[in-house]
Design a protein that fits this description.
The protein is mainly α and 143 residues long. The protein is built from four helices and three strands; from the N terminus they run ααβααββ. β2 and β3 form a beta hairpin.
Length: 143
Amino acid sequence: MAASTDVVSVIEERLREIEAQLKTYDELARERDRLQRALDALRSEPAVARRGGSTQRQAPRGRAGGRRGGRRAQRGSNVAAIIGHVTSDPGATAADIAQATGIDRGVVYSATSRLASAGRLRRVSKGDRQVGYEVGNGAAGDA
């Protein structure tokens, strides 16, 4: 009789261990679902910002060198967003464009400089050493 009691207690203990382990897996599954929802929201956010929605994304600061992570924008999408913003807000500075589009400021500064050199944007003085941008003659049909 003592041997059967030992077997029963071992089985009951093992069942408790399994139940505790399953609780951990449930918590992990909930965390996985939460992370998946956050990832889905992050992936859809840039599309909202490009369509002119009120959601604005700002790039993280403080990391030196290299890519900041995330996916690269589709070819030409940054230029289209920049020209689109300047079309709707002539005189916008590079910082204004970066904030409104969610594109990293360094990318905007570089792109606006290239676009101005190519004639697709025109630099306009805003006083106090600020430079704004307007659509240039070479931008027709590019936005």
